[in-house]
Fold this sequence. Notes:
182 residues, single chain, six-stranded antiparallel β-sheet, 6 strands, alpha+beta, 51% helix, 29% strand
Amino acid sequence: MNAKEIYDLKKQLDSKGIILCYSGVISQSIIEDIAENLKNKIGVDDISSSINQKLFSVFVEQVQNIMKYSAEIEYDEENKIELKSGIAMVGKENGKYFSLSGNLIEKQHKKLLLEKIETINKMNKEELKTFYKNQMQNGSDKLEQTVGLGLIYIARKASKPMEYNIDDINETHSFYSLRVTI
């Protein structure tokens, strides 16, 4: 990428209302740094503390999900750990804030993820609350339970159903993106 392309990318992000964008490997320390940056950026904006907290918690949940579930993995030889990669953004459009994330997933998890999101998107706030409690108590499969809990948590904070897309990249992987409006 050259200097002109970087400027074009910045203009495109600005035109889409993006106020924070991170792409790359995710670690707990990176999450903390991004979260602090986000707090500073949205803290200066004139939004209610309730919206501020919802936006912040949804963003952190999405970034943690990248760290847990991304299929794009780099190995840190020095620290002997796997680092997972993805992209996360926060923006404002038509007076509403949104959090957007994306990462590679193993294609075998696509069906489960689609079913979870579609089920959750059909529920109202009270149904989500009950479903969340039931999943906490009765989740059968660890992956199924944790994917469900995170998505339910996010949906409970959202002002409208989650927007999502899963595109097949190759025979083994898909790219999953999730947009949450607060």
